[in-house]
Amino acid sequence: MDGFLDIFWSVCAAVGTLYILWVAIQLLSGLWGGIFAYILVPLGLGGGLVDLRVYGPWAAVTGASEGIGRGYALELARRGLNVVLMSRSREKLEKVAREIRETHGRDALIVPVDFTRGPAVYETLRETLHQLDIGLLVNNVGLSHKYAQYFLELDMQRARDIIELNCQAMVHMTHLLLPRMVDRGRGAIINISSYSSAHPQPLLGLYSSTKKLVNFFSEALSEEYSRRGILVQTVIPHFVSTEMTKIRRNIFVPTGADYSKSAVGTIGIQGTTYGCLPHAIVCSLTNLTPKFIITRLAFAVLSYARSRYLRLASKK
Ligand SMILES: NC(=O)c1ccc[n+]([C@@H]2O[C@H](COP(=O)([O-])OP(=O)(O)OC[C@H]3O[C@@H](n4cnc5c(N)ncnc54)[C@H](OP(=O)(O)O)[C@@H]3O)[C@@H](O)[C@H]2O)c1
């Protein structure tokens, strides 16, 4: 019996040691990846930032009038690319286009479009977009739940729009622009996911599920097309201060502009990225927590957010 217990405890100790080693390796490699991408590369070390013009003279950004998409459009222009800007509001797009021309001296083309309108949208876009040499596509447009809510409270039109914007737009836009990138043997597709894809998010269940689809699609596409000169990057932001979240900025919640500047810097450096150092720290630490704890915790936090939203809404 003693012999059996000795073996049992030895096995436990070995498994425990291996687990601690695995966690340490994960932490160290994450730490090194973060230091390299967010500190050394911007300083011009380790090869410095990638010249994004190698992918082609034009970039296309969906959801480019606000938040993260606007930030990407301006940063890509600062890095030397002309930009096609897509979202619903012509007025807001014109403002971004003006800023691109006046501040960065690049060309900008605005294409007002509503991605909830179904497949016909992409036929219209085809005519316009195929006239340009678009080497970089940012699939950014996205929609979340109106508030943290139980599934049966989710309006089914909103549910369709969430799927349409977070998944269909990415798939269709990629299908529209990838063939020409493949023909030219160069191109980059940047898919904006969310850290809500890392664990199921109760009360934001559909949103977090659509973002999981973004991750899988993106990673599979990368494996399929990297040998043909196509870079596919998955971007996994934590909270960013935008219209979508309405969270005030702080050290861990950057503005759309600050977040995008940092995230654009990771193109060609990291295949999957949290986009900025504060998010890399928060997400890497959260990743060490067991899934059932995170899911329970998310439920508690989002339940609080739900009550707060409903309380404020009832006062209006
Ligand atoms: N903010 C965060 O904390 C956070 C965290 C993780 C992931 N993300 C992801 O990052 C991406 C951008 O988020 P964000 O916070 O920057 O969002 P946002 O501030 O709400 O901006 C959304 C953009 O999409 C456009 N848009 C909305 N509905 C559209 C439609 N039906 N057709 C065409 N364009 C439409 C909006 O412009 P118009 O109103 O002019 O159409 C706007 O330019 C999303 O995919 C989101 O899931 C955000």
Automatic annotation (TrEMBL):
Membrane-spanning ranges: 7-25, 31-50
Keywords: Membrane, NADP, Oxidoreductase, Transmembrane, Transmembrane helix
Keyword Metal-binding applies: no
One GO cellular component term: endoplasmic reticulum
InterPro entries registered for this protein in UniProt: NAD(P)-bd_dom_sf, SDR_fam, VLCFA-Steroid_DH
Entries under Pfam families matching the protein: adh_short
Keyword flag Nucleus: no
Family of this protein: Belongs to the short-chain dehydrogenases/reductases (SDR) family.
PANTHER family in the cross-refs: RH59310P
The protein's name: Very-long-chain 3-oxoacyl-CoA reductase
